[in-house]
Amino acid sequence: QAQLIESGGGWVQAGGSLRLSCAASGQTFSRYTMTWFRQAPGKEREFVASLFRGGSSTHYADSVKDRFTISKDNAKNTVYLQMSSLKPEDTAVYYCAAAGRAILSSIRRSDAYDFWGQGTQVTVSS
Fold it and tell me: Which residues contact 88 (CB under 8 A, 6 or more apart)?
């Protein structure tokens, strides 16, 4: 059974850094589109960053561009989200998602994804 398990969340002061991990198991996700979403209290889930179709291209939300970096280690079947210069508005539950047949125009939509992790909380204090 395919699973995505996130880790690395926690509490950090504004300006600090965290690295989130998404460990995949149960099948190979090397060619999947792997994406991070986040959801803050009272808000809709939003797109953060994506590795399209195994990493042929990367894509970021404007709000995190130049601060966050998505990457992966195929040998470990793990996707990372390196977050720097964190702001209080980055506070959210961060989710990892995988899509087997996403097209580029759909990667920012949560309904394009087949598998989801349980989420990891990131809290940034001012």
Answer: 14, 124, 125, 126
Q: Tell me the C-alpha distance between 3 and 63, whole Å.
A: 28
| Phi and psi at residue 110, to the nearest 5° | -65, -25
User: Binning pLDDT at 50, 70 and 90, where does residue 68 land?
Assistant: very high
Q: Is the pLDDT of residue 90 over 90?
A: yes
Amino acid at 62: D
How far is the C-alpha of 82 from the C-alpha of 102, rounded, in Å?
23
Residue found under tokens 């720097």 = 84
Task: Give dist(CA 18, CA 43) in Å, integer.
Answer: 22
What pLDDT is recorded for position 102? 86
